[in-house]
Design goal:
Layout (H helix, E strand, L loop, with lengths): L11 H17 L5 H25 L4 H24 L7 H27 L2
Amino acid sequence: MIEIQKDKPYDLEERTFKFAQRTIHYFKVLPRTIANLEIAKQGIRAGGSVGSNFIEANEALSRKDFTLRVKICRKEVKETIFWLRLSEPIESQEGERKILSAEATELMKIFGAIIEKAKKSV
């Protein structure tokens, strides 16, 4: 099991990396049902995409490119929340789903704030 972070890192690249790790682990250990297998594929893809797109945002060539990449991060984290909600965990996994959903919601708000700040600084 991936360790639970007591304090959230301020480095968003690291935070999104840890989020991707936990998301992958959560989806990998779901019960093997037809629905969960498809949901897990999508959830892993979306959860990992959050961090990779944030790395791309940090390497953006322009402010417009940066903003676009952060919007993609927000979109992917919203999609991850959807797949988390749709998944069918066993009872002992419900706590991890709630933790991941809460972290995804925080990341969504952070990305939203970054987008708003970027709009104002134009």
